[in-house]
Amino acid sequence: MLTGWMNRRLGTPALLLAILAGWSAGSATAAEPVTVPPTAQSPAQAMPATLGMPTPTPVPGAGAPGAPVPGAGAPGAPAPLLQLGPGDTVTVAVYGQPDMGATVYVSDDGTIPMPLVGSVQVGGMSPSQASSRIEAALKNGNFLVDPHVTLTLTQSRSQRVSVLGEVGTPGRYPIESNTSIFDLLAQAGGVKEDGADQVYLLRLDHDGKEIRVPIDLKGLADARRAIPTQLLRGGDTVFVPKAQLFSIYGEVSTPGRYRVEPGMTVIEAIAKAGGITQRGSARRVEIKRKLPNGDYANVKAKFGDSVQPDDVIHVKESIF
Predict the structure, then answer these.
(1) Residue 58 CB partners (closer than 8 Å, separation 6+)
(2) Fewest C-beta in 10 Å: which of 65, 87, 259, 318?
(3) Which of 59, 43, 81 is nearest to 135 (CA)?
(4) What structural domains does the chain harbor?
(5) Are the C-beta atoms of residues 79 and 233 closer than 8 Å to each other?
(6) What is the pLDDT of residues 152-178, one digit of tens each?
(7) Maximum CA pair distance of the chain?
(8) Could you report the per-residue pLDDT of 244-277, keeping only the tens digit for each?
């Protein structure tokens, strides 16, 4: 009945044409899915990802100093302890691509040459961050689908720290990511006998201002004190000042010059000098102290008085 009705409405030729047109449209829909027109691509992006490309196109931004650093963190994040810099020697290996491995120098502008992508900015990054930057350049340029890059610092020339003051051999020394204050002082020959127990770490903050961090070295000898664990960073300076001393003479067992300990009192200073002799008097102790204007004043001292740097303590003989 339906066929007869369609024959009467459309006629046999028209019906056949409609059926054929519907079958053709359905087949095309099943075999060829609808595609979205691609956006404009560079020649390098349109080419297949292969290492056999005759003329690789440089990846925009791969070596640009202002380009985002994969893994570098948000702006203002603390700088890595171990940073790559000019003069460093690094070894780069790409997994599965032995021809792309090389040992290169970091140039003065902080870049290293890499096959296919050209110069890649790595200055100021840690080795892991630099590896991520190279991986991103290879992937964004469609040179490799899923690259795995390992960058190793072979020789560091940019990561050096200065040691000044009362050490055996002042100078500049290379550091590693886990170099501590004690490691550096050991390289510099140790602190001299007249060196202070408190040293200073000088470092530039994110705004370029110098900050001074006091570090107490007495944690090694005193179990009650915490051992400093401050790690060093390239460009740091460690300054070891002279120890603050006081002098003591007169009726004490061992006259001489001694270190001023924090919170030291007169009785502690006398004890450090071996105590008062039999001829000395505990009531006749004087301190010759330097005033801010450069003059000296004699102060009658009590056992509980504090000792200041450059004090001269005189324990006098008993008059009885």
Answers:
(1) 117, 118
(2) 65
(3) 59
(4) 80-157 (3.30.1950.10), 160-240 (3.10.560.10), 245-317 (3.10.560.10)
(5) yes
(6) 888 877 778 999 999 999 999 988 767
(7) 150
(8) 999 999 999 999 999 998 889 999 999 999 999 9
